[in-house]
Amino acid sequence: MLDFILSKLNLLILAVALFGIVSFFALALIEKSTASEANFLLSQLVHSSQQLAESPSYCSSVSLDLPSSINVTGNEFFYVLKLSVVSLGEQNGRPISEVVYSFVPRREYRQFQLTHPERVKAIAANSFRTSANVYLYELGPNPNSDSLSSYFSNPGESVFVDPQARPGENDDTLRLIKDVVGGKTYLHVIACNHSACDITVGLVEQEFVKWVNSEQGLDRTGFNCTTRATPSFPFPGGVRP
User: Could you tell me the pTM of the whole model?
Assistant: First the structure.
């Protein structure tokens, strides 16, 4: 009888051990797949952004549609895109900045961003360097001039883009505008909802022109190019719902 009980216990221990091993490898596979899909999305964003920043034109723009989620082993994985700018000093008299795109799990962002932001960890990041003066914008569902007041004085602050926020309030598009003014290159990265992007861009243009005219003693009325009718480029790996 004792031998029978011991044999059953051994089988139970073996089953638990096998379950633990399988679970460990399954979790590792999911984490690896998530990081791979996140890196793919970020590499596409960086590639398109860097192409625009390095283009020889005096003014150009592009719209980048963000997928609402990425596909990981057949399941949707929701995320928040973090945009940051890091100053790297000067090179040949020109400021060098690094624009960083980070992929943050949406669950952790919503749970900890307001109370414990140090717990919000990116699972993937990618970046590019540029000599442009970079400004990041996230104006929310009802943009206005007041919400732009700090953007030009604090260009290095991070911006969080949430494609899964409430419909009409979610930022599911990045509009990038490169503009050369008085020998200085400016790169505007604007998070907006695709249905209201032109309104948001128009407001940024209006306020930026006021600021740059004051800074450089100019009399500009807008960007050097039309930015309202820019084509959109959705990325592989996700489709806007």
Answer: 0.77
